[in-house]
Write a structure and sequence with these properties.
The chain is built from 6 helices and 8 strands, in the order E-E-H-E-E-H-H-E-E-H-E-E-H-H. The chain is of the alpha+beta class.
């Protein structure tokens, strides 16, 4: 079972490449060679990087939806739109698609977070704003 942890300050270069942090690479050592899928996060303006083994489970859930039910078909279309397979290069960099970078408003400075079975990639400024949002975390924890 994958349980990715850690918060890392990283930079995206001029070509849209992000070097994966060593702390995450150690946690991904056994599965990184299989590749990843990157996509928009459903709830926030950030990106989700799924190890392919995790993406396959997500895809199986999508396959179980009925494409002849309009809301299911719309969800599948919206969710899959932008999903892009990728592999890290020899320097442990991934090339972020421009359309996804624009969606998440990524600048040069980003936060890379291990979030259980996936990695979140945030614009650093947007991440810091999200952390200061006025949310009653104790109440949220009780509800969840």
């Amino acid at each position: 079972m994958l349980n990715l942890l850690g918060e890392y300050d990283c930079k995206v270069d001029a070509k849209g490449r992000l070097k994966l942090p060593k702390g995450l690479l150690r946690q991904l050592a056994d599965i990184q060679k299989d590749g990843f899928v990157i996509n928009r996060n459903v709830f926030e303006r950030c990106l989700d990087l799924y190890p392919i083994t995790v993406w396959d489970k997500v895809a199986a859930k999508l396959t179980s939806l009925n494409r002849f039910v309009r809301k299911d078909a719309m969800f599948i279309r919206k969710f899959i739109n932008g999903a892009t397979p990728l592999h890290a290069d020899g320097s442990s960099r991934i090339n972020l698609p421009t359309s996804l970078m624009n969606y998440a408003g990524l600048s040069r400075e980003v936060k890379v977070l291990g979030n259980n079975d996936r990695v979140e990639i945030w614009d650093k400024e947007q991440y810091e704003k999200m952390l200061t949002e006025d949310i009653d975390f104790a109440s949220l924890a009780e509800e969840v």
